[in-house]
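Researcher: For the annotation table, I need structure tokens for Peptidase M23. Please keep the output clean. Sequence:
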Amino acid sequence: MDRRLLYVSLAILLTFSTFLGTNLLTTAEANTGNELRDEINSYQEQQSDIEREAEEAEEELKQVQAEIDQAAADIRKLDEEMAITNSAIDSKQEEIDETNDRITDLVEEIEILEERIAQRDEILKDRARSMYQSGGSLSYIQVILGAQSFGDLIERVTALNTIAQQDRNILEQHVADKEAVEAAKLDLENELMNLEDQMSQLESLKAELKGQLAEKDEILDWLREEEISLEDQMVSLEEEQAILLAQEEAAKQELERWEEEQRRLEEERKRQEEEERKRKEEEERQRQLELERQQQQEQEQPSSPPPSQDNNSNTNNNASPPPDNSSSTLMRPATGTITSGYGHRWGRMHHGIDIGQGGRSNVPIVAAEAGTVTYAGWMNGYGNTILITHVIEGRTVTTLYAHLASFSISNGQRVSRGQQIGIMGNTGESTGPHLHFEVHEGGWNAAKSNSRNPMNYIN
């Protein structure tokens, strides 16, 4: 009985153990599957988040790029408006100067007229005093009756007419001068009113320019806060390709001119060598003639001592070298102090030098060397910009002139060294009037990989 109870107990325990083990295994497997599914779902969610963030980043990038493009467009529009305003200010200043000149002329004219009137007043007072002292008006009958002869009578009548005419002329001039003074004073008053109106317009234009500058400064401040440089996004791919093609064509033309100049110099060198050869031949011929003459004299006078000879007396072995017309230096493109040099600044590369305006106005910009204009127009970040292709000693060099207020040349134009090409300004991504000047060995490109320190080139 005890054994039976033991077997029954063992059977129950085994059955319970089997059931418990099966349930535990099933539960463990279920938990593991849920964890994997959760992890997969987590990865999928993370991937979705990454894709969503990438889309958002792309949208933000597009938005930032759109803002940058809008900033560049706004700066360009403001520069165009400021150019119009500056031109209006210059025109208004010219009007004011002309008005001041007219006012000065009127004041001088009034002074002259008043002085002449004062002098004539004295004359008229003297005439009136004389007539009063003589007892009134002059008796023409007495003058005529006092004539001694007919000729004397004619002279007396003529004199009386002359005096009367002079009196009339004095009075007429006196009246005319007084009328002229009144007219001049009226003109002066009108010119002063005109000047006041012009000064008011000038102040309005200056206020308008100040507002445009403030608006541009706000855009530049935003760009600096975002650490964005418009110079890094200067031109589109199509524009760059067009500039590169223009540079290639200009470089070919400049190279042809340079080779033609070298041929001319070579011909000049050969001509000089030929002249030098003929000169030496002539000197040698003259020397031989002199030797023959001396020998003949020795034969006629054998006892005389032979003259000393200096073989180098009439020879010149130092030929003049051909003129050196080549130069590796560039002309300084503008006067003024260099305010920023070539190299890294503000966390990015500054590919040129800046020459400040220094409180001056209408500072001319000149071509650093003779060459062909490959680009003259607006460039993002650089504002009004000029690119010129040169060939110096057989190699291509490109110069860039930026932030110009205006330029006076066009694409494809040939310019000479020192020729004025524009006026220093403040267009583009610029915080003050200056010239940004770059030098590139070879052609210019948007990456500016060929830029060199201009200080190694300019005089």
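Researcher: And a one-line annotation?
Model: Confidence is low (pLDDT under 50) at residues 1-8, 10-22, 307-327.
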